[in-house]
Design a protein that fits this description.
The complex is a heterodimer of chains A (about 375) and B (about 170).
Chain A lengths: L2 H34 L15 H11 L10 H17 L9 E4 L2 E4 L8 H22 L3 H32 L4 H7 L6 H4 L1 H14 L11 H4 L9 H26 L8 H8 L3 H30 L7 H28 L7 H17 L9 E2 L4
Antiparallel strand pairs in A: 1-2
Helix pairs in contact in A: 1-10, 1-12, 2-10, 3-4, 3-10, 4-5, 5-8, 5-13, 8-10, 8-13, 10-12, 11-12
Chain B lengths: L7 E2 L7 H4 L2 H15 L23 E3 L14 H5 L5 E7 L12 E9 L8 H5 L5 E3 L15 E2 L1 H4 L14
Antiparallel strand pairs in B: 2-5, 3-4, 4-6
The chains are: A mainly alpha (about 375), B alpha+beta (about 170).
Bound molecules: iron/sulfur cluster (2 copies).
């Protein structure tokens, strides 16, 4: 078979997989929400509600599609398309697995392998805000516009910290290619072990980038009605919501590739050895790696939901404060500390930053006057 | 001033760094939600699973018969008088010779109707009845109706079926 066709199939599979995962995330989200609130969640459509996404899609398609009279019609339609497009594009550079050996050729389980992979992700992700911005602006509704502006400013502020926290990882790997970053974590040296602070910052920013709770500021019933998608209905709204789920899956993939070793799993060399070095053995080993990657990514999808159903939304000024005054300085600190560590060839060095923070916290907690403590202490019963 | 004894003392002092970092509190919160994730769900899946409504639930009306299978109602009209919603109406008739096995008293209700749109399930009818003829079942709802011709329940839907007699929990 031509390498072109194999690649085409892989790309289609990745494409379908992202859509499928996103589709079932909408189901899983409600299931997780239900379970965390002591109720069973959707269970009417199909076994355990498994046909729910289809039912939703049916509902979305048959709802009235409404375009406001004063809206810019083409931009109004382009908004959700842009959101969807950018969400799907970013999965292209994620290495879902090692290589497949077909007809003596090594083919990477990845859409495209470019040596600037992570820049690609960032470029596309930052384009994602155009979907929101265009949608909010084209609606010709003040609330939508405000929501869109909020989304844009939030995305910009958090993208800075996101990029900066990532720089430490890139410094340690010396490559922008996602595959190289994954390969450098081969043998248990996952980046989470060396970049705890960077990971926390990255994860927080990933939440903000996906507009997930606690950072889902672009939509806010109390102040903005529905936010940037107030005027959207039917499948256009569906596209916006669906793009959020695709984004969530892609960021889960990125997090697990950058910090959790991607398709690496413990004892993978022993497993690969046991399976033999011929084409079948190699392919099976790749498949196991693929599932390891998938398990990690799905865990993070769950994690996104877990956080969503635990935390309330941030206030807007808190969000901005956290982004500009905490996360960006912290990520710069992380870069500096990592840099110092690299200079002396100490990979563990960024734990020093964590240590300092923990120490400061402990000292502060210990020296805080007793009288000021005792939050929510019950008053004596009379 | 303290109005209730549930008042809380609120700490308005500056937060420590640990508190401002949110992370410890977030971890605590997530542990709580995860605990709930694995908890047994108290949900009752209604149409499939029904819970016992209790002996005092007032549902579908029933016109009782006695042990011999004779209708107890003597068409005295007390239930209709007691009914605050004026849901009950009836036509009395005199028992003929040879109908002793059908009706217990000499007068009986030839027509007995309850308008279920009016009924408020107050249970006054069963309290008013001197013959212990009308009861509200504790184990059955009045089914949903879709059109107005279904809402008047006549004797066909009210009189007790002798093959499956209605016994109130606690009578047993
Ligand atoms: S339950 Fe109350 S409202 Fe209904 S028929 Fe009896 S007395 Fe009337
Ligand atoms: S049901 Fe009871 S109260 Fe009503 S008419 Fe019959 S005997 Fe009288």
């Amino acid at each position: 078979m031509d390498i072109f066709w194999i690649k085409a199939i892989i790309i289609l599979v990745i494409f379908g997989l992202s859509l499928f995962v996103a589709m079932y995330s909408t189901w899983a989200e409600r299931k997780v929400a239900g379970y965390m609130q002591d109720r069973p969640g959707p269970n009417r459509a199909g076994w355990g509600g498994l046909l729910q996404p289809l039912a939703d899609a049916g509902k979305m398609f048959f709802k009235e599609d409404f375009i406001p009279a004063q809206a810019n019609k083409w931009l109004f339609i382009a908004g959700p398309c842009l959101a969807m497009l950018t969400a799907l594009l970013s999965s292209a550079v994620i290495p879902f697995g090692d290589t497949l050996r077909i007809d003596g050729q090594e083919i990477q389980v990845q859409g495209i392998e470019v040596n600037i992979g992570i820049l690609w992700v960032f470029g596309i992700v930052s384009l994602g805000v155009y979907g929101v911005m265009v949608g909010g602006w084209a609606s010709n509704n003040k609330f939508s516009l405000l929501g869109a502006i909020r989304a844009a400013s939030q995305n910009i502020s958090y993208e800075l910290a996101l990029g900066l926290s990532l720089i430490a990882v890139i410094m340690m790997t010396g490559s922008l290619s996602v595959r190289d970053i994954v390969n450098s974590q081969h043998g248990g040296g996952w980046n989470i072990l060396f970049q705890p602070l960077g990971f926390v910052i990255f994860l927080t920013c990933a939440f903000a980038e996906c507009n997930r709770t606690p950072f889902d500021l672009p939509e806010c019933e109390a102040e903005l009605i529905g936010g940037y998608h107030t005027e959207y209905s039917s499948m256009k709204l569906g596209f916006y919501l669906f793009a959020e789920y695709v984004n969530m899956f892609v960021s889960s993939c990125v997090v697990s590739a950058l910090y959790f070793g991607g398709f690496n799993y413990p004892f993978m060399d022993k497993v690969a050895e046991a399976l033999g070095n011929d084409a079948t053995g190699h392919n099976i080993a790749t498949a196991i790696g693929f599932f390891a990657f998938f398990a990690k990514a799905l865990f993070f999808v769950f994690f996104f939901m877990w956080v969503r159903w635990t935390l309330p939304r941030f206030r807007y000024d808190q969000l901005m404060n956290l982004g500009w005054k905490s996360l960006i300085p912290l990520s710069i600190l992380n870069i500096i500390v990592t840099g110092i560590g690299l200079m002396f060839n100490l990979r563990w060095f960024s734990w020093v930053a964590v240590g300092i923070i923990v120490a400061v916290v402990a000292i502060q907690a210990a020296t805080k006057p007793k009288a000021a403590r005792g939050i929510l202490e019950a008053a004596p019963v009379r | 001033m303290q109005l209730t004894n549930r008042a809380k003392k609120i700490d308005k002092s500056e937060m420590t760094l640990a508190e401002r970092m949110y992370l410890p509190a977030i971890a605590g919160g997530m542990a709580i939600t995860l605990k709930h994730f694995f908890k047994k769900k108290p949900t009752i899946n209604y149409p499939e699973q029904k819970r016992y409504l209790g002996p005092v639930f007032r549902g579908h009306h029933i016109l009782k018969k006695d042990e011999a299978g004779r209708e107890r109602c003597t068409a005295c009209g007390l239930c209709a008088v007691a009914c605050p919603a004026e849901a009950i109406s009836m036509v009395a008739a005199e028992r003929k010779a040879g109908e002793e096995n059908l009706y217990r008293e000499e007068k009986y209700a030839a027509v007995y109707e309850i308008n279920m749109l009016r009924c408020i399930f107050c249970g006054f009818c069963e309290e008013a009845c001197p013959k212990q003829a009308i009861y509200l079942r504790h184990d059955q709802f009045v089914p949903v109706f879709m059109s107005r011709d279904e809402v008047i329940y006549g004797k066909d839907r009210l009189v007790e079926d002798m093959s499956s007699r209605y016994l109130r929990e606690g009578w047993k």
